[in-house]
Backbone:
């Protein structure tokens, strides 16, 4: 328990960030209408490509002689980029179809 | 001083781009701009992470990073411009899986560095590593398996073990115990145990998706979407990136909300979806629907539609499978030209992912104000002259309201039988995706038109032309 208390006090800012982002996320997304649920999903899917940031950090920190970690990082960058780029492009394609139908 | 300031400012702007982008997604008019803002947010963050200072002379490996980003961009772009709109559920599943896989790789790298002593991790940090491996692992293999199911590469029934729920529970319990043990005695038992934890998480992902199928696919995809976001957030704590935490949590929230909405639309709890599919239930043998069905000639159908005041179309996945959206829109135009008010009633779980049917109709140039959600549709149906059902089944089943023995009893449905007359377009008398009898077909106001949706709609369109 002691450990939990000190963890809480040491990471107060991170905990605030988590809690407020969760609340904000629910508030913003609950307003999205049924019509747009698929684009919401593929758009948020693209956002989950943020892992690419972690992969880039990993590669930048890895000594070139550490081939294993380097390959993890590079594969991670490829996968994360596919997720992000593919997600944003396909969402744009979908939303364009919704827009041009405006009367 | 200026470089650290700029990079952190970029990360902050990137986070704002995500939040603002999602906010703009709440209206069809601004949605496209919203997606672009989110994309710009991501681009800003990538620029920032490339130049952010990392201590004395970091190795950087810029060549490798450039190669990775270039390869990923080309593959992602080509996949996105080529995919058919009917295949969106598969595409989203696959992308969910990639994000999860990336998080697993980050977690694994941390495990290796923890055990070879090149990185110091406290127990809160180690817990985050385990969470990244678990959530990312489930998102990775679960999504790939969901993809295989949607592509009909695997048969739902053949991948379900006897007592599958029990198998899953045992596996989950094992993971919790192993994880707890690792947290307390991590350094003593070696990296093999941590790698075993990852492998079991990966197997659990497959096993957890295996028994879920059929009509429950939208729930699974939404849930895995939330997992892929949460794994990103966990990895963000790992590499100490607030930007990743914000992005990941937003995706987690969006996936969670959609999961809950899909469950509500089927009147089932998430637990109920996870432990047992529709397919296995044999509940409602009692509701043997007697009587015979009445067929309708194409000519009669054409006359009925053409001279009515209002028509409500209820599209189901059958419409999408037959690629009949365009011809459906043609009939809409023909009827509208004669002053008929044509609307579309879209059930939340129509199609195979949340909102799927809306996208397919938008692709066929149907204006979005004509697409009604459940409540609006039920109001419109009550005063409609004709309800025409194209390839939908369970979402228009009156048993959901009248037969307490039916597996879908209590699920909100489109009350098509309140319209003055009902035309059901169907390939055959086979029961729907969920395998449940539908008394609507035997209803006194119902007339059937058998055949492939595209074929029948095509003939119907030419009949209307002759009027």
Residues:
């Amino acid at each position: 328990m002691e450990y939990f208390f000190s963890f809480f006090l040491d990471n107060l800012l991170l905990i605030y960030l988590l809690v407020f982002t969760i609340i904000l996320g629910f508030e913003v997304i609950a307003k999205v209408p049924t019509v747009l649920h698929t684009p919401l999903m593929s758009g948020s899917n693209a956002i989950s490509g943020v892992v690419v940031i972690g992969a880039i950090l990993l590669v930048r920190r890895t000594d070139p002689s550490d081939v294993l970690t380097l390959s993890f990082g590079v594969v991670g960058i490829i996968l994360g980029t596919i997720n992000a780029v593919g997600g944003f492009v396909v969402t744009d394609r979908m939303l364009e179809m919704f827009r041009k139908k405006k009367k | 001083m200026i470089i650290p300031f700029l990079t952190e400012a970029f990360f902050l702007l990137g986070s704002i781009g995500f939040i603002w982008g999602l906010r703009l997604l709440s209206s069809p008019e601004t949605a496209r701009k919203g997606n672009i803002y989110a994309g710009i947010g991501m681009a800003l963050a990538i620029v920032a992470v490339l130049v952010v200072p990392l201590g004395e002379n970091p190795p950087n490996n810029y060549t490798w990073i450039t190669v990775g980003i270039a390869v990923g961009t080309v593959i992602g772009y080509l996949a996105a411009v080529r995919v058919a709109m009917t295949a969106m559920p598969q595409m989203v599943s696959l992308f969910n899986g990639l994000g999860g896989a990336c998080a697993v790789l980050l977690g694994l790298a941390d495990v290796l560095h923890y055990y070879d002593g090149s990185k110091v991790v406290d127990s809160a940090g180690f817990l985050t590593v385990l969470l990244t491996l678990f959530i990312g692992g489930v998102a990775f293999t679960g999504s790939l398996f969901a993809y295989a199911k949607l592509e009909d590469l695997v048969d739902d029934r053949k991948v379900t073990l006897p007592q599958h729920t029990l198998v899953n529970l045992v596996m989950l319990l094992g993971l919790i115990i192993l994880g707890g043990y690792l947290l307390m005695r991590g350094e003593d038992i070696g990296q093999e145990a941590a790698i075993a934890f990852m492998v079991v998480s990966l197997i659990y992902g497959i096993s957890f998706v295996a028994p879920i199928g059929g009509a429950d696919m939208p729930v699974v995809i939404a849930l895995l979407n939330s997992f892929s976001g949460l794994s990103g957030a966990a990895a963000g704590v790992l590499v100490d990136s607030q930007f990743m935490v914000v992005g990941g949590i937003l995706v987690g929230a969006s996936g969670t909300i959609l999961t809950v909405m899909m469950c509500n639309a089927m009147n089932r709890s998430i637990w109920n979806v996870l432990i047992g599919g529709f397919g296995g239930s044999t509940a409602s043998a009692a509701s043997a629907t007697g009587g015979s069905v009445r067929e309708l000639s194409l000519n009669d159908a054409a006359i009925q539609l053409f001279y009515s005041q209002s028509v409500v179309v209820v599209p189901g996945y059958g419409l999408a499978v037959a690629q009949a959206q365009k011809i459906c829109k043609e009939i809409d135009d023909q009827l509208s030209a004669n002053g008929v008010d044509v609307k579309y009633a879209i059930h939340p779980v129509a199609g195979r992912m949340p909102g799927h049917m809306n996208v397919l109709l938008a692709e066929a140039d149907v204006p979005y104000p004509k697409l009604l959600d459940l409540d609006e549709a039920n109001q419109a149906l009550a005063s409609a002259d004709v309800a025409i059902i194209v390839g939908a089944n369970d979402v228009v089943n009156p048993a959901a309201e009248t037969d307490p023995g039916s597996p879908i009893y209590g699920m909100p449905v489109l009350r098509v039988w309140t319209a003055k007359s009902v035309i059901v377009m169907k390939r055959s008398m086979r029961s729907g995706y969920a395998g449940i009898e539908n008394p609507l077909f035997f209803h006194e106001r119902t007339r059937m038109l058998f055949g492939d949706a595209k074929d029948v709609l095509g003939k119907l369109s030419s009949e209307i032309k002759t009027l």
